[in-house]
Amino acid sequence: MKYFIFLLCVLYTDATQYNDRPTIGVLSQETYSTQHLFPGENYTSFIAASYVKNIEASGARVVPILIGRNRSYYRELLGKINGVVFPGGATYFNQSNGYADAGQYIYEIAQELNDAGHHFPIFGTCLGFELLIILASGRGRIENRGLCYSYRSRPLSFTTDFRCSKMYAEMPDDVVNILRTQSVTVNAHQFCIFDENLRSHNLTNDWRVTSYSTDNYGVPFISSIEHRRYPFFGTQFHPETVSYEWRKTSDIPHTPDALTANRYFMDFFVKESRKNENLFPDKTEEDQHLIYNYAARFTGALGGYYEQIYVFEPREFVLNYK
């Protein structure tokens, strides 16, 4: 019976690819966790360079998506790029004109694009994974997530039908075995999404849970998920850190197996983004939006959590933006 289910899932796998010049937008976030590294510099948002490098290693280019803009900014940009990453980090979901507001615009516009027949994927990591579920829940006054304590690398416990998901349908068996048997997924979060969070907001019919992990105290939580209708995917763990973050006080594996297993996730997402055929109208505009216009700053030497970050826009500019 299990073999039959697996075979059926594989038969329905969509391997179509179109775009050989994909660009991925990465949402910036408030500088709560990084502002102290640059005293006197009043930047409004940042992106960890590990997300940029991870996307580039999978064959796509990166466009930073800034917070604090109106809906038309996000709508226009999503019409020119091929997918969006909601990165992990440390910010609040109840700050006006911040990460969560921008994420909500993007999430709603992406739904509209997909409903209109334009394949537009989103990938959420850690905080971004939680944001996906909170946005799907309706973003009420009480956030639909629970407290946990997870600061260790862990193996994945796959659901029985994980091969029926898009994200895992074509994952090689050797990679599945690494993820299932070795502690190679990096966790660094104080909130979790539990089964009850899906049940309480009637999300079980819309979202497929594909794996679980346990926190430092053995409490199980959802570690990967995807939407059943839209190409929206999320991991509570951090695939980008294994290759690009080196903080000694963090539990980050750098073994060949860990590198192989974690490389799969962004390779998969960029493949999804290739199904979107959006383009910038000309090379000049494309060049103006790319991350290459910014210099990564070495924050690891300053005691920062990330080895490098990109910072964006003095606060005065954003306050005057129309």
Main features:
single chain, 322 residues, alpha/beta, Rossmann fold, eight-stranded mixed β-sheet, three-stranded antiparallel β-sheet, 12 helices, 13 strands, 34% helix, globular, disordered N terminus, disordered C terminus
Structure explained in plain terms:
This protein has an eight-stranded mixed β-sheet with strand order 3-1-4-5-11-10-9-7, sandwiched between helices. A three-stranded antiparallel β-sheet has the order 2-13-12. It has a two-stranded antiparallel ribbon with strand order 6-8. It has a single domain (2-319), classed as Rossmann fold, CATH 3.40.50.880. It is 34% helix and 20% strand. It contains twelve helices and 13 strands. Residues 1-7 and 315-322 have low confidence and may be disordered. Strand 10 and strand 11 form a beta hairpin. The chain has helices spanning 2-11, 49-57, 71-78, 99-115, 127-137, 166-169, 173-181, 195-200, 241-244, 256-273, 283-289, 315-319, and strands at 23-27, 43-48, 61-65, 84-86, 122-125, 146-150, 157-158, 189-192, 207-214, 220-227, 232-235, 297-298, 308-314. With 322 residues, the chain is of the alpha/beta class.
